Amino acid sequence: MILEEEIIGKSENIKKVRELIRHVADTGLNTIIIGETGVGKELVAQCLYQYSLRRYHPFIKVNCAAIPESLLESELFGYERGAFTGADRNKKGKFQLAHNGVLFLDEIGDMSLSLQSKLLHVLQSGDFSPLGSEKIFTTNTWVITATNQDLQQALKNKTFREDLYYRLHIINVKLEPLRTRPEDIPCLIEHFIKKYSSIFPNKKVVFPNESVMDRLMTYHWPGNVRELQNIIQKKMALGSWDEILRGLIFKNDTPHVSAIAKLRAEDSSDIEALLSLLTLSIEDLSSFSLQKIKKEVTDRIENRIISLVLEHTGWNRSKAAKILKISYKTLLFKIRNLAISPRLD
Ligand SMILES: Nc1ncnc2c1ncn2[C@@H]1O[C@H](COP(=O)(O)OP(=O)(O)OP(=O)(O)O)[C@@H](O)[C@H]1O
Ligand SMILES: [Mg+2]
User: Fold this and answer.
1) Residues having CB within 6 Å of any atom of ligand 1
2) Is the entire prediction scored with pTM above 0.90?
């Protein structure tokens, strides 16, 4: 049995997802998992299943994008012999096969409108008929869906039915892209190294040193966790971390990358420069106690760093909170308390 601990990560997003899985698993409420490619949508679906009592029944996966529309309908609902040319036997559909278990509909955003209305009917009534059959089957299936598309946009474009959207969204699990939760990268690397060490027992992988880890944490990970997993496998098979890094194309224009780079540059600047940055005058030193100066200095450093990150995220506070690794609430508190406001130039 896969345990929820298999969803590795210590970011707020992953912690919330683990908590949600614990609460939702036994409810059987329609759940949609949203996120870019490779973020772990299928892993979450598997965990929901493994945590529910439905784990004693089948977990059936259908990739709606990979099957042509004409075949997808018979794949889902099955068909009766003679339903169409070539249907020389009865075939059970996935809804029937997943009875009492889970039907995981991946890439739901790619489903055609006509099939969406058939799916909506099953979700509302629990009934369906195989193609070419008069029989009505009743299914007790937990439908979990996933998408990497912006379904809100699909609603606006009228390519996704609004009534189906609300049916599927009873529970909504959002997996953030890996680049916005860099704090998960070290534990994922450790996890994959352990995992693949048992598969390649003769290969020894050295955990990345600090500078390699810095680079990995500022990479934009277009393929998310799957890409990281592939990199660890590649690392087991060949070469050095340097070689792996050379294979990654860094996008230096992403706001969080340049913000972090700038912070690092400031980190390495000497204390003189830092003091001048803080514009601490000799008057400040004479009129305050050491305790107060300490507080003043910390506040100014915080103000400077938070302003910098906010500027780089275009004042997107949730992005900024992630970069700073503080909660959204703490960031709002600090913005208010330190009187940080957007620059007017
Ligand atoms: N938090 C995580 N902890 C451990 N492994 C993870 C995590 N997230 C993803 N993975 C692993 O990364 C790989 C990709 O994940 P998964 O297939 O679930 O992604 P996906 O979102 O369904 O991708 P796609 O949209 O391309 O189908 C899998 O091998 C999965 O086990
Ligand atoms: Mg998937």
Assistant:
1) 6-9, 14, 35, 37-43, 148, 188, 191, 225-226, 229
2) no
